[in-house]
Each structure stands twice: as structure tokens, then as C-alpha cells.
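Continuing the series of single-chain predictions for the mutant panel. This is the parent chain; the variants come on the following pages.
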Amino acid sequence: MKKDSHKLLLMNNFIESFRWSLVSPFMPLFYYSLAGSFILLNMVQYSSAFISSIFAIIWARLSDSYGRRKPFIIMAYTAGIVTTYLTAHVGNIYQLFLIRLAGSVVGSAGGSTFSALLAKKFREKRGSVLGSYKTLGIAGSFAGNMLSGYVYERYGIRTALELISFTTVVPLLIVLAIDEEPEERKSFRIKDIFIPPKMPPVFKKYFLLHLYLMSIGTITGSIHAVYFTEYLNGSPSLWALVVSITVLLSGTSAIYGVLADKYGAKFNILYATIGWTLLNIGYMLSNDPLTFAIVYVVPIGAAYWVAYEKALFDASDYTDRATFFSFLGIISSIYSLALGTIGGFIADMYEPRTLFLLSAIISALGSILAWKYIPSDSKPRTVSS
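Parent structure:
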């Protein structure tokens, strides 16, 4: 039954990645067309993420006290059907904000609880298993991205979102079929909801570095797609192809997972930070769609995320899983809201290219921090409050 659950989770990741990749390359363009500015766009995106993280803590505490994850994941999928359909018919950025806000309240029930379910099911050889999990997700994303340009130009983003809404029933049924062994129930008290969970000391260094490195993606936000199409005059179909190739080349997740198991997360993180430095310099120097595309497709991010998630899942073995994930989420969302707003302001006041320079500097400093503070052994052994 354990192996069947593994297969169902792997299959679910492929399907979910395929569905959302039909629209993800062009969602930034859709949102930007409603917002009209980077700062408003980022504020709407990151503020709803902040609200989501707040409620995620409540759902996580309930999940840990109940000892099960599936009911909360099913609730989130059900909410996703409604909010995605409403997003397809949104008329302005303020309507989008209200829909995302409502979706954040209920949809947040699935984030940390799904991560907790994965961490529980993928206990053995996590680096390798997560690499395979991500590789299947990449395969689904590649297939979806390859079709996204045709879907966008032939049917439009709104029709595609309706399709995403209707097909959410598929992952919902898959989760229903997953076997979940109940965990020990724990007491639930309202006053304990926002008390931080225990965290392995070693992981604290990883998380602090992770927050710092989040700056790279947060300040640029949705800029890559808009920059490629609006500033470099790249076509939507070409952007879809670029994203597809990027996803395909990030299939190195499986290799990076093996490296993380063998050499530790530090090796992957150093590789990623050095690579991000070079990539952002390349973005900054690109003056045409082709040059930008050649730089954009270089696979770097997979090395970091496999390593970080391995350390994250290892740390969750020593604490209340869902609560642990949700607390990290709220800290990240507060950080993202602040940096995303600043990044949008800079992009509107100057130009997106300025953010690429800033990201390159952040990445370069990140490699120094990783070398100095991240231990070679990523497996936490003790727990502190």
C-alpha cells in the first residue's frame, strides 16, 4: 500500500504540473494586464500569499491535532475549483484581489498539509525520491508548456482557466485514493496556534539563508515574462517554447537529488548561487529575445530546490510537520510581501533590468554565506525550541 501511495503521489505531481503549465507562462501577462503596474501586481500577489500563510497555520495546527492530512487537502482542491473558475471571469485587479483573498482562506488548508503528507510518505532515500518526484513534475510541466502557446493564442487565458477549474476533480480523486495511516492525535488549544514549533538548530541556518536567497525570485516576481514580451518584443509562442525548454532541462532534478544524498545540500546550494549570479548578469546584458532565451533555459534552480527540500523534510522528522511547514510559510510570505513591493516599485520607477543587477549581487553574496555558514552534513540530529 505504501508503494501504491508513492505511485499516486508521483502521478498526481505529473497531472498537476501539466494542468497548471497550460496557463502558467502567461498568468503574469494576464495579471499585469489587469494591474497595469508591477508594484500593484506584486502587492496583490504577495498580500494574498500572506493571508494564506496566516490561515495555513490554523489549518496546520488542526491537521496535526487531528492526525490526518487528506481532509484538508481535499478541502483545498474543492476551493480551487471555485476560485479558478471565478478568476477566469475576473474584470479588474480589485476583483482578482478579492477572489485570491477568499481562495487564500480555504485553499491554504492544502499547502502545509500536503507537504506533511509528502514528508511522511517519502521518508526513505529522500533526495533520490524527491528528485524523481520533481522529474515527473518537470515532465508534466514540459508537456503543458509546449501546448500553452497554442492554447493561449487559440482559446485565450480565460478559457484555459475554466479548463483548469473543471479538471481539478482529477487530483482530488487521486488524493482520495491515497492510503493515509493516522498519526498520534495531539491537543489543540486556540492559544497555542501561533506558538512556533520546535526546529532543529542546523536547519535554522538553512532557513535564514533560504530567506536571503528568496530575494532573488521575490524582487523580480513576474517580471521575466513581461520583460520578454513587452520590453524585448518576444512573441507569446516563443515565450512558451522558452519556458518549455527550461522545464525540460531542469529534469536534472533526479541527478541533483542523488548529489544531495551523496555530498549534502551545501554542494547543491553553492552550485545554485554561483549559477544564479551568472544567469542574472546574462539577463541584464541581453538586448534581444534570443539572447535572453539562451540564458534563461540554463538549468540552475533545480539544484537548489532539491537540496533545500531535502533539508526541510529531514527537519520535519523532528517536529510537528504541518505546523512546521506553515510557520516557515508565514515568515516567507511576510518577507516576500515586503520585498515584492520594493521590487515592483523599482521596476516601475526605473526598469526591470535594474532588478537583474540587484539579483546578481544578492546571489554572489549568497554563495559566500553558504560557504561560510552551511554545514556539509544536512541531516539534523537534535531539536531546540
